[in-house]
Amino acid sequence: MCGIVGYIGNKEAYPILIKGLHRLEYRGYDSAGVALVNAEGNINVYKTKGKVDDLESFTKDKDISGTVGIAHTRWATHGEPNDVNAHPHYSQSKSLAIIHNGIIENYAIIKKDLIKRGFEFQSDTDTEVLVQLIEYIKTTNKVDLQRAVQLALTQVIGAYAIAVVEKGNTNQIVAARKASPLVIGVGDGEFFLASDATPIVEYTKKVIYLNDQEVAVITRNEEIHIKTISDVETTPVVKEIEMSLNELERGGFPHFMLKEIYEQPRRIAEAMRGRINVDRNRVSLAGIIDNKEKFINAKRIIIVACGTSWHAGLIGEYLIEEFCRIPVEVEYASEFRYRNPIIHKDDIVIAISQSGETADTLAAIELAKKSGAFVYGICNVVGSSIPRNTDSGTYTHVGPEIGVASTKAFTAQVTVLALMTLTIARLKKTIEDDLYKRLIHELAEIPEKMEKTLATNAKIKQIAPIFTYAKNFIYLGRGYNYPVALEGALKLKEISYIHAEGYPAAEMKHGPIALIDAEMPVVFIAPHKGIYEKTLSNIQEVKARKGRVFSIITQGDREVRKLSDFCISIPETEECFVPLLASIPLQLLAYHIAIAKECNVDQPRNLAKSVTVE
Fold first, then answer.
1. Does residue 227 have a pLDDT over 70?
2. Which of 178, 493, 529, 609 is the catalytic position?
3. Catalytic one among 2, 324, 567, 599?
4. CA–CA separation, 473 and 463 (whole Å)
5. Contacts of 394 (CB under 8 A, 6+ apart)
6. Annotation marks residue 2 as catalytic
7. Which DSSP symbol is given to 104?
8. CA 551 → CA 36, 483, 542, 584, distances in Å?
9. What would the 3-class secondary structure string for 447-511 be?
10. In what order do the strands lie in the sheet with 238-240?
11. Which of 182, 333, 395, 563 could join 161 in a cystine, given CB atoms 3.0 to 4.6 angstroms apart?
12. pLDDT (0 to 100) of residue 440
């Protein structure tokens, strides 16, 4: 959830670190800091509550020299957001400085023991406990920094990505990870360190992804040396990243979120490229074909995910059960990992995550693998932890998603689930040939229909300020559009801070209808597909109680339009693909309401893009 940046080379580290922190601002944070090792070998730590801009202001009159440094943006877990709890943290003698993502679960026990040994603590963080432990082990065992880190981490329970610098050592950074991402960029006579590739791509395309329980020694003008915490040497594997610098810029849009909403037609087309062949009436996903016996014989599919990815998984449940006739369960990964689930060896577990680093989803994968299930990943970030820990999978290939509120990742996940469904259904022979061909052709037309849907932006922008008064929203949909209602409500909550709830429209009478009055906006996803007449009745029930109806309808629909206070039309499509179009007006509605309320849409309060802790 936090951001890590590091640099060692021949350039001044500070400008590179600051630019890297700005690149990582999308991850969510409440404080920022840097540690620089200057030419004399002294470690200068500067940190402050607030934004990276505040850190830059704080360091204007400070010694920021040095070609070795580490930097951090913190999202508070242990200890409130303030200057003292911000990273980096010194050890007691100030001979070490550390930055850390993750949570040390047994920090209280370790801290109590260190206090008995005379250590004093300045902060409330678990991270300071770790650096004090490293110093204690280094001093008492008379070992070098790498060995001290290895030994300290054998005593730690929890998740971590860390980088440590040492006083007097102007040529080295020691880094390690477990269940929290860390990538090393390999440049020309220089190395970079980061939570993900976004701060690195400007300087190099060559990266090394650290694996769990690995410790890397990054030394100036030498090859990287990696050992496990149990002191087994491993061979670094250098990979090429696909990301381009242009993908990290706003491209003329006022916010990344709006840019990413508008990218969806192109990105969805890219997600389908090479996987769908309209001329040959064929859909093929290599990850499915290579494991076809697993999918043909699967007795059950379990989808595990969190947040927006969970909503995509619900749509996947409808798709797979309708067309593949395989029972599907959709689980919150955070609950799945703790409820002692029944998992059989002929189950398939599909893990969905934009970042590929979601801690709860990774834990669910580990649980599924221990039970002998086949695990399939759907992920956007190449080289992230989920693709490396699953048996097979599919990348969504929509490029970096910088806005914290997910948009293009959601529609890409649904697209991949649709491609999976068609591939499996064909293998299992559970879909008629004419329907299979019709769905292929319709799916191929979705990017063009998304473009037409985006044309509603001006109208939504005009409507949105009307709703800035609202304290609550209700979103209602049926069938495939119930998850769309959930996702629309989540988008509004995330970026406008208006409380919103999504429900199946038929459930409105079982409680939520008590909330309906003239002040309550109710959003209906009401295309002329599925249980249309029933949805029409639900709208009439809201209007009878003077609720304000904002509806998403199929072009040409007159019945819902007559009952609606505000109406947005989307092109006609197959019922199972409506979520790909209906979600776009809801994304735009949330965006424009948030803008009208002067909220920070790209970095909403308290949220982080990549949730790497529980």
1. yes
2. 609
3. 2
4. 15
5. 285, 287, 376, 377, 378, 416, 419, 420
6. yes
7. E
8. 55, 16, 12, 13
9. HHHHHHHHCCHHHHHHHHHHHHHCCEEEEEECCCHHHHHHHHHHHHHHHHCCEEEEEEHHHHHHC
10. 43-49, 31-37, 68-74, 3-8, 191-194, 183-186, 206-209, 238-240
11. 182
12. 96
The model's confidence at residue 608, banded by pLDDT at 50, 70 and 90, is low
State the Cα–Cα distance between residues 157 and 160, nearest whole angstrom. Answer: 9
Count CA atoms within 13 Å of residue 6 on its CB side: 34
Distance, in Å, from the CA atom of 405 to the CA atom of 413, rounded to the nearest integer, reads 15
Domains annotated for the chain, with CATH where assigned, are 3-246 (3.60.20.10), 254-453 (3.40.50.10490), 455-600 (3.40.50.10490)
Distance of CA 224 to the CA centre of its chain: 29
In the chain, the amino acid numbered 184 is I
> Residue 511, Cβ neighbours under 10 Å: how many?
9
Catalytic residue flag (residue 324): no
pLDDT at residue number 79: 76
Q: Which amino acid belongs to residue 425?
A: A
DSSP secondary-structure letter at 132?
A: H
Q: Three-state DSSP class for 178? A: strand
Average pLDDT, the chain: 93
**Number of residues that make up the chain:** 614
Measured between alpha carbons, how far is 205 from 209 in angstroms, rounded to an integer?
Answer: 12
What is the predicted pLDDT for the residue at 280? 83
Tokens in use for 353? 């995550």
Q: Which residue type does 468 have?
A: T
